[in-house]
Structures are given as structure tokens and as C-alpha cells.
Write a structure and sequence with these properties.
The protein is an all-beta fold and 233 residues long. It contains no helices and 19 strands. It has two domains: 151 residues, Neuraminidase; 77 residues, Thrombin, subunit H (Beta Barrel). The chain has a four-stranded antiparallel β-sheet with strand order 1-2-3-4, with no helix packed on it. A hairpin with a 4-residue loop joins β2 and β3. The protein is globular, with a radius of gyration of 16 Å. It starts with a strand and ends with a strand.
Length: 233
């Protein structure tokens, strides 16, 4: 289950294979360069290892090691890798550029530094780790060492992913609301659109022309599609 995709500054393509529990790094031509995680391994988090349901996050009792149905990946400018391990875990994992685990943080809950399905992740130019804490309806901000810094003040409805462009504009699909928000890097909303009919907004990317691509995988009866918006402002 290829769940998320990320293109780093060297044009390497990173994929999250959720159900196999692996993060895969490819060249733009598709040559496999690195694999993080053991195929089929699921860490101890209180979720039965045969539970692949989309609400498995509701049964997490404690954080576990990498991975248990990971959801998102991002690469820092220096090459370190951050994984949001959320569907059956409640942690963010920090790896070196060689794929060695440096640190994990997070436990189930809704307090500072706790997660209820950490689904998307991004590392901004200030080396802060932004985490889309989907079922807590918020974005949390951490240092690269996992120190809790803040929660964005804006109310979101199931933020699924984040993309930050070169102007520090943030794009957030709101999975549970069928909405899409554009925000500042401090979490102030600039604009928002959408409706419940678009529910299951799951991924986002912005190209060099500043056009926006939103992934809708087809949950909740919505159509399976990628929607492209042309940014005029």
C-alpha cells in the first residue's frame, strides 16, 4: 500500500509502503537506493498484528519502535529522514541519511507531544519538524530532536499532510472535512475551500509553477483522483 510520496532536494523519490512497514528511496528513474524497515514487521503498540483497518490508531495503547503501519515521510535539507508512524502507532521516528534510527518520540493522547494518528510530516527551513496530528485536528511543531515547541493556533479538520513551498506558504489537505487550507508557517490561515463531498483529501504537492495537486484516494464514497489547482495569486 503505497501511502505517501516525497521528493527530496536531490530529486530522490521516497515512498511509504504502509502495510509492508517500509520506507523506500528511489532515483527519479525508479532504481531502489535504500530501504528502511523490515518487510511485514509490526512493532508492539497494543494493536493486533492482523489489524490493518483504517481506525487501528484508536486502539494504540503505547508508542512502539519503527514501524506499525507508517503514514508519512519527509527529508530534512541535510538528509535526515523523519517518518510519521501513525496508523497503528503514535510516534515520529528520526533517521540519519543512511537510514539509522536516531530517536523516536510520541505516545497516544491529545496533550503536547502526544499523537492520535501522526499522518503527515515536514521539515521547514528553520529545522523544525511539523507533524499533522490528524485525529487531534492539529499541527504540532517540534525541534529536530523531538522537543515540543508549539501547536498551531488554527483549527483543522483532520489534517493529513503538509507541503511548504519556497515562500514558506503551507498547504494542508483536511482529510476529515473535505477541505483544503493554505497557511503561514506560524499556522495562520490565509484561505480555505472545499466541502464534505471532497472528504478524503490525503496528500498534497506544489510544483515549480505554484500549481497545487491534491490526492483523494477514494474513502467515504468520494472519487479516486488527483485534483490540480492553478494558483493565480
Amino acid at each position: 500500500m503505497a501511502h505517501a510520496i516525497y521528493v527530496d532536494l536531490k530529486d530522490n523519490v521516497w515512498l511509504v509502503d504502509r502495510d509492508n512497514g517500509q520506507i523506500l528511496k528511489f532515483t527519479p528513474e525508479g532504481k531502489l537506493l535504500m530501504t528502511i524497515g523490515t518487510e511485514g514487521y509490526r512493532s508492539s503498540t497494543g494493536v493486533p498484528r492482523d489489524d490493518f483497518t483504517s481506525d487501528a490508531f484508536a486502539r494504540v495503547t503505547h508508542g512502539g519502535d519503527p514501524f506499525n503501519l507508517p503514514a508519512g515521510v519527509a527529508v530534512a535539507p541535510g538528509g535526515d529522514v523523519f517518518v510519521a508512524d501513525g496508523y497503528a502507532n503514535s510516534r515520529v521516528h528520526h533517521f540519519s541519511s543512511e537510514g539509522e534510527l536516531i530517536k523516536s518520540w510520541g505516545e497516544p493522547g491529545n496533550g503536547p507531544g502526544q499523537f492520535n494518528l501522526p499522518h503527515g510530516v515536514w521539515v521547514d527551513r528553520y529545522d523544525r519538524v511539523l507533524v499533522a496530528d490528524r485525529e487531534n485536528n492539529r499541527v504540532q511543531v517540534f525541534s529536530r530532536d523531538g522537543e515540543f515547541l508549539s501547536v498551531w493556533p488554527v483549527k483543522l479538520i483532520g489534517p493529513a499532510a503538509l507541503h511548504v513551498d519556497q515562500e514558506d506558504i503551507v498547504y494542508v489537505p483536511e482529510h476529515n472535512g473535505g477541505l483544503f487550507s493554505i497557511l503561514t508557517l506560524d499556522g495562520q490561515r490565509l484561505t480555505r475551500w472545499g466541502s464534505a463531498i471532497n472528504r478524503s483529501c490525503h496528500g498534497v504537492w506544489v510544483d515549480s509553477h505554484r500549481d497545487i495537486y491534491i490526492v483523494q484516494p477514494g474513502d467515504f464514497g468520494s472519487r479516486r483522483r488527483v485534483v490540480k489547482y492553478h494558483r493565480t495569486g
